[in-house]
Write a structure and sequence with these properties.
This protein is of the alpha+beta class. It has 16 helices and eleven strands. Among the domains are: about 260 residues, no CATH class; about 60 residues, no CATH class. It is about 45% helix and about 15% strand. The relative contact order is 0.10.
C-alpha cells in the first residue's frame, strides 16, 4: 500500500498539493458557473491588451486573410465558372450580410475572432428578397441566447438551446430587442437547420461554448499589470526624486516668533520635469535614484508572450512579431507548426460553416432562377461538390520552395492543384492566364524557349556593333 501511495505525484495530498483541490464533473456543470465571467474578462482584455490583440490578429491574418476561394466541382466546367462568379458577387456586403455592412470575408474574420474570444458565434440563415440570390446571413453573439427560457411540454431547454435525448440541438431561442436595443422579454425560436452555432467541443458532455482563451487570460492580465508597474517605475526614475531633510524641526523661528514664521509646506507637492523649488531655511535635499528595470522586463515579457502564444498553438515570433532571435531553420520549423494550427482552424470552418453556406447559397440560386440546373434536385449531391481554397502561405525562401515544388511535380509526387492551393490560387486560372500571356507575347514577337520562359532578344544595333 505504501508503494501505491507513491504511484502518482499528481494524485498526492502532501504539502506540495495541499492547495490543489479539484473535482470530476460534466463539462456543462463546470462551464456554466464560469462561462459568463470568463467571457467578460476575455472581452475586457481584447479591448485593453495589446498582447492579446496580437494573437487575435495573427489568427485573422492566417486563417482567413483575404478570404477563401470557392471551386465548384460539377462535371460541367462552364457551369462551375458561372457558379463561382455568382458566389463572388454574392459575397458583397449588400447581398451576404443582412445588415449590408460586412463582406463575406469580413464575416469570416469576425467568426474567427469571436470564436476565440467569446468561445462561439451564432449565424442565422435568412431568406429574403434582395434582387439577387434570396439568401443572407445574420450574426448573433452568444449573449443573445435566451438563457432564461425554460422547457415545457416535455421540451428540454438548457441555456437557450432545445435538445433531444441525445443532446442534439433541435432549436435555438434568441432574444428580441426593441428599437433602443432593450430586451423585450420575448425570444424567437429558430429551428436548428437555420442556425449555425460555431464553437469548439473538447469533451463529450460539453453542450455550450467556453472561450478558447481561458488558459491564457490570467497570464496576459498578469503581464499587463507587470508592464504597467514597470512603466510607472520608469517614469518616476526619469525624474529627479528628492527627500527633504530638516536640519532643525524649529527652523522657522524660536518661541513666539515660530507662530509668525512664514515657512513653505511640502505636503502634496509632486515632481515635474525641470522643476526648481525653493526650500525652507535649514532644509537639506537627498536625491533618490531608483534602479531602472526596463532591460530585465524585456526578458520577462518575452517569456510570457512565448507561453501565451504556445497555449494558442502559435509561435512566439508570430504572437510578438519579433524575428530577432531566429535563423532560417528555426523560422521555417516555427512556420510549419503555425501552419498546422491555422490549417486545423480552416478545416473546422470548412466543415461546420463554409460547406453549409455554399449548399444553402446554391439551392437558393437554383430556386430563384439565378442558375438554371433542371435536374438539380435529382442529382443534388453531384452539383453540390466543391472545394474551398484557403489563403496561401508565403515561404521564407521562395526559391528553395519553388525548386522543391518543381522536383515533386516532375517526379509525380504532387499536382499543380495542390501547389496552387498552397498559395491560395486556382490552378485552372493560372493555366488560363499563362496561356493568354504566352499567346500575347508571341503576337508581340517576344521569343520563348521550349519551357515557355522568355529568352533574350538581340537588337539590330547589337548585331551591327558585333
Amino acid at each position: 500500500m505504501k508503494d501505491l501511495e507513491r504511484g502518482y505525484d499528481a494524485g498526492g495530498d502532501d504539502r506540495l498539493n495541499a492547495g490543489w483541490r479539484a473535482v470530476n464533473a460534466s463539462a456543462e456543470t463546470v462551464d456554466k458557473v464560469y462561462r459568463d465571467t470568463i467571457r467578460a474578462r476575455s472581452r475586457d482584455l481584447e479591448r485593453n491588451s495589446d498582447i492579446l490583440e496580437s494573437i487575435l490578429l495573427a489568427f485573422e491574418r492566417n486563417v482567413v486573410g483575404t478570404g477563401f476561394r470557392l471551386q465548384a466541382k460539377t462535371t460541367n466546367e462552364e457551369l462551375d465558372t458561372k457558379i463561382e462568379e455568382l458566389f463572388k458577387e454574392w459575397t458583397r456586403p449588400k447581398y451576404c450580410d443582412v445588415t449590408q455592412q460586412q463582406s463575406f470575408s469580413e464575416m469570416c474574420q469576425m467568426v474567427v475572432r469571436r470564436k476565440r474570444v467569446d468561445g462561439a458565434i451564432i449565424l442565422v440563415k435568412r431568406y429574403m428578397e434582395n434582387g439577387f440570390v434570396p439568401f443572407t446571413l445574420q450574426l448573433f453573439e452568444v449573449d443573445d441566447l435566451d438563457t432564461m427560457r425554460t422547457g415545457g411540454n416535455a421540451k428540454r431547454v438548457v441555456n437557450g438551446i432545445e435538445y433531444n435525448e441525445y443532446n442534439q440541438p433541435i432549436a435555438y431561442y434568441l432574444k428580441k430587442y426593441d428599437a433602443y436595443g432593450n430586451h423585450t422579454g420575448v425570444s424567437e425560436r429558430l429551428p436548428a437547420k437555420d442556425v449555425i452555432f460555431l464553437y469548439k467541443k473538447k469533451r463529450p458532455s460539453q453542450i455550450r461554448e467556453i472561450t478558447e482563451l481561458s488558459s491564457t487570460l490570467p497570464r496576459i492580465r498578469d503581464t499587463n499589470q507587470y508592464m504597467e508597474a514597470v512603466s510607472v517605475k520608469e517614469r518616476v526614475a526619469a525624474l529627479l526624486s528628492v527627500f527633504i531633510r530638516r536640519a532643525s524641526p524649529d527652523a522657522g523661528g524660536i518661541g513666539r516668533q515660530a507662530a509668525g514664521a512664514k515657512g513653505m509646506s511640502y505636503e502634496g507637492k509632486s515632481l515635474t520635469p525641470g522643476m526648481i523649488m525653493e526650500l525652507n531655511p535649514g532644509d537639506d535635499v537627498s536625491v533618490v535614484q531608483p534602479p531602472a528595470q526596463g532591460a530585465s522586463a524585456a526578458d520577462f515579457v518575452r517569456l510570457q508572450q512565448r507561453l501565451t502564444g504556445s497555449a494558442q498553438g502559435i509561435s512566439y515570433e508570430v504572437a510578438a512579431r519579433d524575428m530577432s532571435q531566429v535563423n532560417y531553420s528555426s523560422a521555417r520549423q516555427g512556420l510549419l507548426e503555425d501552419q498546422k494550427t491555422y490549417s486545423m482552424e480552416q478545416q473546422s470552418l470548412k466543415d461546420h460553416f463554409l460547406r453549409d453556406i455554399y449548399e444553402e447559397f446554391l439551392e437558393a440560386a437554383v430556386l430563384s432562377g439565378q442558375i438554371d440546373i433542371p435536374d438539380f434536385f435529382k442529382n443534388k449531391s453531384m452539383y453540390l461538390k466543391h472545394e474551398w481554397v484557403a489563403p496561401g502561405m508565403k515561404w521564407i525562401d521562395p526559391k528553395k520552395e519553388a525548386d522543391a515544388n518543381k522536383i515533386q511535380l516532375e517526379t509525380n509526387q504532387t499536382t499543380l492543384e495542390v501547389i496552387a492551393a498552397s498559395t491560395g490560387q486556382d490552378w485552372r486560372e493560372i493555366i488560363d492566364q499563362r496561356a493568354l500571356e504566352i499567346e500575347y507575347m508571341r503576337e508581340k514577337g517576344v521569343m520563348l524557349n521550349e519551357k515557355g520562359a522568355i529568352e533574350a532578344i538581340e537588337t539590330e544595333e547589337t548585331d551591327d556593333e558585333s
